[in-house]
Amino acid sequence: MSKSKTRSHKTTLTAAGRKEADTKAKKSGKGSKSAKSAAPSTTPVAENRKAKFRYEILDSIECGMMLTGSEVKSMREGKLSLDEAHIRVTSGELWLVGADLAQYSNAGLWNHDPRRPRKLLVHQKEFNKFAGLAFERGLTLIPLRVYFNDRGIAKCVMGLVKGKKLHDKRETIKKRDADRGLQRAIRRG
Predict the structure, then answer these.
(1) How far apart are CA 173 and CA 180, in angstroms?
(2) What's the rounded mean pLDDT across residues 43-65?
(3) Has keyword Mitochondrion (predicted)?
(4) ∠ Cα 105 116 128 (to 5°)
């Protein structure tokens, strides 16, 4: 037999067959670029919940953190507190001061100091913007939340904030109570 007379063993799909195969691939997430570009996942570690009540948040930015190995493992266990933490500008660098990161139980001799200052990493342009505004206007830099991004890198969201007065805090409480009442009324009927 010659080559022209032999049948090929390849399967050819008709238009309907191709459409069905594409539908199956989309459902399973294979072969589609849009299914691949899903939202990146983050693992939250700690959040400064009192910040929204105590301060008016003007701007925020994500920055990296310089940590030791035992600090990272302790953060993965969720043992970080940002309640009394703030960010200080010292000799052209940002430092996270007052954050309490509990010691890692399995580190032994090589454990870290729980309240040591930790360096924050930002681009020079962003540093100039935030540090300049904080210095000129008398604003404060505080950590809003700390999390691990989809690549497993620790990130801190730093906020440029202005302290609220007592009457502003009262207004916040009134607004929150009114919103809560509205939500209840909507649910009821």
Answers:
(1) 11
(2) 88
(3) no
(4) 135
